[in-house]
Amino acid sequence: MSTQSDVLPESSPESLAIASAEIPLARRMYWGLRRELWENRAIYIAPLAAAAVALLGFLLTLAHLPARMRRASTLDPMELHKLVAQPFDAAASLLMATCLFVAFFYCLEALQRERRDRSILFWKSLPVSDLTTVAAKASIPFVVLPMLVFAINFATQFLMLLLSGAVLAASGLSAARYWDQVSLFPMSLLLLYHIVTVHLLWSAPVYGWLLLISAWARRAAFLWAVLPPLAIGALEKLLFNTAHFAAFLGQFLSGSGSEAFATPHSMPTDPLTHVTPIRFLTTPGLWLGLAVTAACLAAAARLRRYREPN
Questions:
Q1: Of residues 247 and 40, which shows the higher confidence score?
Q2: Which of 147, 170, 214, 275 is most buried by a 10 A CB count?
Q3: Radius of gyration of the chain, Cα coordinates, nearest whole angstrom
Q4: CA 245 to chain centre
Q5: Which ranges does the record mark as transmembrane (predicted)?
Q6: Backbone angles phi, psi at 261, to 5 degrees
């Protein structure tokens, strides 16, 4: 009678490394991303819920749309554009805030959760390295979430445009003047650019730090992620009566990558917004932050290798 060890022999690190090398990296990353989407449904449910809330709010205001468009006949083109674009900007802002909220808490739980539910024992038995696993998890906030929000934002604003056109047509008004003020694809591209540059690439050290804490902390990852920076800032204030460390952290937490736009305080979905990607990519602070992020991810992968279930 064969034992369990005969049926399922224990895999050594050397055999796993050999098996991992035989599987293309792209395929390993693909299945790693599928695993994350399977285990963390909030990645796509939360943006969809935010889109539903935005559509509901827009529906509640549609009854007043014909009256607003009649009054807008005397407005200049700039004021008319602001009037029409306001609900579209509100929907984009809600989706952007949801994206950042999900990214923050996903990174904080990504590596701790698998130890807490002991699924790490199963995943470590597969021919996937710790570095590939961490890279797949890091791809969620940096790649998957922005692209998902881009697609959901475009679909949401497209529905808003169709609904507004139907209401205006039912009221005997032409929807052409309204639709001329909305450029769906450029607006969605600008939102994607804003999220990636200002809130992800510029704030990358924050997400790297969260993943590192998630790999290290056994419990209360949120406290371990937040309390050390707060303690350093409070100590600096008490000893030197300065706030340099708080200001340094603030530029990453608030997404102040102002080099990405010629006018950083303009609405990111405004088609008149002038983007400056070359100036953003040549900023030394960006590459220093990305180097810190890479170090955090490498440390998280190394910690995962030796961490046991909680």
A1: 40
A2: 214
A3: 24
A4: 25
A5: 42-67, 88-111, 191-213, 220-240, 285-303
A6: -135, 150
Spatial neighbors of 187 by CB under 8 A, at least 6 apart, are 88, 92, 157, 269, 271
Q: Which two tokens stand for residue 104?
A: 């923050």
d(CA 55, CA 57): 5
Q: What digits encode the pLDDT tens for the residues 227-279?
A: 988 998 899 888 888 888 888 777 777 666 567 776 665 556 666 777 888 88
Q: Which residue has the tokens 């509640």?
A: 60
Any bridge partners for residue 275, and if so which?
261
At 18 the pLDDT is 52
Cβ atoms within 10 A of the Cβ of 229, count?
A: 16
The rounded Cα 226 to chain-centroid distance in angstroms is: 19
Cross-strand pairs, 261: 275
Reported as a single tens digit per residue, the pLDDT across 101-154 is: 999 999 999 888 888 877 777 777 777 788 888 999 999 999 999 999 999 999
| Three-state secondary-structure class, residue 256 | coil
> Is residue 95 a contact partner of residue 192, using CB atoms and an 8 Å limit?
no
**129 vs 123: CA distance, rounded Å:** 10
Residues present in the chain in total: 310
For 127, counting Cβ atoms within 10 Å of its Cβ (0-12 exposed, 13-18 middle, 19+ buried), the class is middle
